[in-house]
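Subject: for your reference before the review

Hello V.,

The reviewers asked for a structural picture of the protein, and I figured it would be easier to keep everything in one thread rather than splitting it across files. Below is the amino acid sequence we used in the manuscript, unchanged from the supplementary table.
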Amino acid sequence: MCIINDITHFVKNGFTVLRHASSGNYEENSPEIEALKREMFFKPSNRHTDTENLRKDRDNVARDVRTAFNNLVLSNG
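And here is what came back from the structure prediction:
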């Protein structure tokens, strides 16, 4: 029954989006987009916070690369 409800919700959402798009309403944003906008445009930014954010991003990328490499090594024996 849950699968039928999921399919019904998906189809209903598809028709709703199509109806809004065909009438020219493209300005609806998801909560995730609104959170990104608030983070980018409304938080104060200075050199210190930019440096800190770049360091965090670099650490996150390094962790992702290390994890991917370890998975590759482990999968190839």
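For the response letter, the relevant points are probably these. The chain has a mean pLDDT of 88. Residues 53 and 76 are 35 Å apart (CA to CA).

Happy to draft the paragraph if you're swamped.

O.
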